[in-house]
Queue: 3 jobs
Job 1
Amino acid sequence: MKNNNKLFIAILIALVLGIVLGGIVHYQFPDVKADFAKNIKLLGTVFIRLVQMIIAPLVFSTLVVGIAKMGDMKMVGRVGAKAMTWFFTASLISLSIGLILVNWLQPGKGTSIKMENLSSADDLLKNTGTFSLENFVIHIVPKSIFEAMATNEILQIVIFAILFGIALSSLGSIGNPIIKTLDVASHVILKMVTYIMWVAPLGVFGAVAAAVSNYGFEIFSLYARYLLDFTIGILVLWVLLLTVGYLILGKRLWVLLKRIKSPLLIAFSTTSSEAVFPKLVEELERFGCKSKIVSFTLPLGYSFNLDGSMMYMTFASVFIAQVYGIEMSLGEQITMLLVLMLTSKGVAGVPRASLIVVVATCAMFGIPPEGIALILPIDHFCDMARSMTNVLGNALATTAVDKWESESESVLETN
């Protein structure tokens, strides 16, 4: 716990220093701010790459071991059903909150935002074609587990690991050596996590300094209406998540929040919920969740349970339509919500993945996808909030499933 507090303090200090240094460069040395931002951002890139390096082996080893240790395939199905029920319910509610608030607050109506940054959306527009029903289905099933691991395709790794874990479990005692080997491997990787997390303050420092040096302090007030309305949406979602969490966990909710404060802050600062996956595994197990539940539920959550991103997708899509003066009927908006329920699954918690889904959705519903350029300058700060929300949602989902499963096991033992 002491080391956890030290890391949290170090990240906070790095966050403040990043804002200060970025501000100094932006206002005192404007001629070098672009080069400075590009170079200082490498600190954040190094940290995220270090984490990405261990994501695939950690997801594979923990998920296989979790399934194999369950032994009973009925238990695997029971836990999976509980997890997926939470995921799809949370996604539907998150998408609905975004849709309701953007229609009520109407941040895009009467705006004077200029299309100055249109060219910066080119890369995203090139990726629009990657989201179709055919490509989505193909994306789910791995062509090669090695390719999936090399590209950190979490959903594909999860699919392979589930099948591998079920097959391994069916072998009985013959599979024990492999289970023990993967169990040891997962603990080695978690030990690596403790080393890598001490690079997090440098990553936070670099990411924040780069953003502030590019845009200055004005970025915190730029597009104030959009940011304010989006913040309201995130707060509503947090209140709802924490309320449900309190109903399930009671006062232990505050213990959980204390446990995951570092992962939340890292996700907020680096705009990557994926970056905190290993640390989140560690903290949830320390909180008291069974390792087999964490190793099964959390990887699934990173593919199916991105609450902050869900809310953002409907909010951003309808916002762009409002800016262009495009009126969408209730039926069209509900259809959009259902489409986003599908196309968003399997999008890992990596920076700006949500934007690509928004671009594809806009194109599908006749909204100019170029409108994504309207929100690119401030998306970094929206991404901070939605990444942190994704982490909270997955932590609550895992602890809820763990509690429900413990209660089910108690009932079965009693009977």
Job 2
Amino acid sequence: MRSVRARAALGATAVVALALGAAGLAVLLVLRANLTDQAGLQAEVAAREVAGQLALGVPYAELDAGDEEEHPVQVTDEDGRVVAVSKDLESISGTGTDRVAASGTAGTGDDDHDGHDDRDGDDDPGRGEVSTDEPDFGNGTATVDGDRADYRFAAVEATDPAGRTLTVHAGAPLAAERRAVDSVRSAMLAGLPVVLLVVAGVTWLVTRRALRPVEGIRREMAAITASEDLARRVPEPGSRDEVARLARTTNETLAALEESVGRQRRFVADASHELRSPIASLRTQLEVGAAHPGLLDVPGAVADTVRLQALAADLLLLARLDAGERAGLTRLDLGALVREEVSQRVGDRVPVTVSVSDGGLDVTGSRARLARVLGNLLDNAQRHAVRAVSVTVARDAGEVLVAVTDDGAGVPDAERERVFERFVRLDEARARDDGGAGLGLAIARDVATHHGGTLTVSGARFELRLPHPGALPPNPRSSIAGGAYR
């Protein structure tokens, strides 16, 4: 079943059906128990009336059991023998004995057990008593004047004036209880389908209305996919529910996707532009050299090839960083790495001073990529320094700080973030640039981000902060195409 509405309607209907079934069963059980208790109370009343007569010494043949069809009565002595039964009682069950005839003449006591033959004399035989204990109850059947029915029997003990213990079994019909239970059950079974249809219909309509904005989002997303127009947005309902949050999140995702695609397109365009110049220059030199070997500018061709190779390497590194590639990580001393990198820069036009604090400068990362970051920062400082470049390495709280500072004009405050975008070169730097493509600071920031650190600039001071050293940071995927020489 693919429809959410259908599944919701089916699920709600199933839950309601189970709930109504359980509730109906409970109602029927309670109703049956109450009606059975009422029948038992009626049987107890009838049994006590007969027991009271026995306690007063009323002869068995003269016992009044009321409506004998409604309340069949059976009286037994302490030996379990039947001493009296109600008129027209033909059979009985559920009272301990199924006999319906007295031990002597039916309806009267015999000479040995009735104890009533002498009660017409002048002597007062006294009176017995009726037990006040809770009677015993049980269900059974009885046939009265040819009609067989189910009864609730109550057993009450009584003592006659002669001191004999008798047990009176009186019944109350259960037909009313059965009819009531059957009527309620039939009404429930008849009404249940109607209730379930109403529940299913209401759930279907409510779910349909609730999911209508979702369908609008789906249609708009399908249209965006077909048109590839990432500037479009899905409709946002005015409510504050989950659907509205879904729409807002979808639009935020579309905005981020549009920005990412635009950034990638700009990156491709800028990369193509940057590659075009050295390739065109190299081709021109080679074509001239092919036509006029004496005019071939070999140093120029080599320089263009080196520039092209460096640009291709930068683009490849950025692509790997964007893909979230993590290079081999190891624990290293950042102070020692800075000293090593500075010592190898023998061709710098401005001297570099290094200040490294003692101890606690370990970080976890890729030695080659961190060396690349330091090299890019030093290259940038060399381009803009007047007379001095300095590098300091120190602990700062839980981080290792590397600060590269030059005595140049610095980056304007308005350009502090823009300078880290790819292929961005500030106007002042563009005039003095010797062919850089504007990827150095972009690479430096992305590498810092992938190491769980940060790279910021304030004036002519660039600060690289890396965690010390602890657990490795999560593998971030660079989401900002940032960085270039200033």
Job 3
Amino acid sequence: MTTTASPTATPTPFVDPARWPDVARVPDVPLRAAAAARLLRRAASRRGLRVELPGGRLLRPAPPGAPVLRLHHPRDFLHRVGESGLIGFGESYQAGDWDSPDLVALLTALATAPETLVPGGARWLRRFYVQRPPDEELSTAANARRNVGRHYDLSNELFALFLDPTMSYSSALFPTGPADASLPGSAPHPGPAPLPGPAPLPGRTPLATHDGLPAAQHRKIDRLLDLARVGPGTRLLEIGTGWGELALRAAARGAHVVTLTLSEQQLALARHRIAAAGQTDRAEVRLCDYRAAEGRYDAVVSVEMIEAVGRPFWPDYFATLDRVLAPGGRVALQAITMPHDRMLASSRTYTWILKYIFPGGLVPSVRAIEETAARHTRLRLTRADTYGPHYAETLRLWRERFTERSPQVAALGFDEVFRRMWELYLAHSEAGFRTGYLDLHQLLLTRDEDRP
């Protein structure tokens, strides 16, 4: 049954088959497409979606204000989803098969309890469309630099278009009141459940603005440096340079910083920014895999880098932290996390994000971090503070800026398929944090023998 909706149309982007072979190719899988159509009806009913079809029709009646999935090419959409599930869903968006006037609202509805979208009796069908991550994207020492380059070496100018002037590409911490004014002393960690941190960010706050983003990024960096007790004379190792803002902030405290990156573009700009700030005597940027880190440090800090390590190499990552940390030292990590059961369910699944955005990675759980560190090192998780809503707001600001500056992105040579891919990536990530499917933690690890 269909009802009438307002007719809509949108230009279909040109898809270069040499650049985007799997987006250009439309599969022909009628039985799987029929199954995808049944799942679409179920999702529309269960999540209260408004599914708009060409010619002004609705898939089914929908409540006022319902999230909208606007299908421009239903046949292509269903065959893509039928063949490769969520990868096909993403590629279908890249190809212009569907759209939404509020992409985050739609994805938030779909990301809420995602395990319930498919009926229990039909979940065995996953094996027909779920792929395993390819071996060539496994984050070995040989592959890691290529994986990093596919994202972070796209263009410094591209990132500058939507990031704030600090060039920080990780979650900011927005002001929430007196609770976030200073960092209290380290508290004991009672187990896998995270300790409460400063008050969470309530909804879309007017404090989360583009003008306030640089200060919110500095608040994040300062809290992490405080957690690691970085001050004058501290020997600090940073794993994952970004574009150098944390290294600059630590050097300004009087620390001696070595920071590691595998991105040549980040290396060049970080070195330039450090030289311009007159901090070359205090901050050194090295093109170096974390596994090859050398030296002994009073503190190690790493911001949203563990997600790129990959589950098979978590023991190597934590062993490196343990090896380079001097007696009495502290490790402060900022990590995107997900619930442990969801992490286990997705750990061997090739997703659209892995294929197009972050090859070779896996978002860990706090429990996985704690257990891996305890099993393979002398490090123990002693504090875990959570800030997921702050990442949702950070992503909102990035997404708005990226969308507003679409013409400048195009002027850098990125086609419409790429721009749609990044809009979906940013909206998908924001929806993940808004639903709690993803979370953000600042974590402190220390050694048992170093505690009083």
